[in-house]
Amino acid sequence: MDIILEGILKAFILLVTFDPEVLGITWFSLKVSGTATFISLFFGMSVGTVVALTQFPGRKFVVSLINTGMALPPVVVGLFVTIFLWRNGPLGFLEILYTPAAMILAQAIIATPIVTGISLAAMQQLPRKMRLQILALGATRLQMVRILIREARLPLLAAVMAGFGGVISEVGASIMVGGNIKGYTRVLTTATVMETSRGNFDIAIALGIILLLFAYAINLVLTTVQQRERPR
Questions:
Q1: Which CATH number fits the domain that encloses residue 137?
Q2: Half-sphere exposure of residue 164, counting CA atoms within 13 Å on the CB side?
Q3: Alpha helices in 54-99 (DSSP H)
Q4: pLDDT tens profile 164-215
Q5: DSSP string, 155-224
Q6: Are 114 and 162 in contact (CB under 8 A)?
Q7: Considering its fold, how many domains does the chain have in total?
Q8: d(CA 103, CA 180)
Q9: Sites in the chain below the pLDDT cut of 50
Q10: Could you tell me the pTM of the whole model?
């Protein structure tokens, strides 16, 4: 119990004093996870929308793959990204292993199935007659998709929150492809693991609390937007 109290006190001190190292790690965590989330939104919402609005052979199989991908273990992603980016790997010529770019790539792969699955469910719940009605009024297919996305904006915001939450809190892939290099690839989760392994539980708890507060602040903003948009 004393360790937990010391961790809470340490977190308060680090926040109040604007510790440069903690602020740097926090800002880097936001940049990496934020960029990965934006990438996953582009691919995830696009694929989810196409699958939801299209009928094709093997569709159920594709949907099952997407749903399975939502539970993709980060360490497995980290393993395969590391193999592909290794100096002798297929993408080794890029020389981005143990760099922020590798971390963004791994986190984007983790978040994309999450965003895709939720986007797919959000678009599928819209009445099929709505699509026919929109087209009957003279809209093009592209305009129809835009209208449907606007109608499904509330659950799509949930996809944003789920995707961001999935990558800001993961640690396995970040350590494997980023290396936890101080001042270069260290994020809040990897820093917490490192301090725990060193036995610095007060600092580890402090970093954990800061991570929770950080994730809550981001999701609070998104939740506020979502609830403000809620139909009455």
A1: 1.10.3720.10
A2: 24
A3: 59-69, 74-85
A4: 999 999 999 999 999 999 889 999 999 999 988 988 887 888 888 888 888 8
A5: HHHHHHHHHHHHHHS--HHHHHHHTT-TTTT--HHHHHHHHHHTT-HHHHHHHHHHHHHHHHHHHHHHHH
A6: yes
A7: 1
A8: 10
A9: none
A10: 0.88
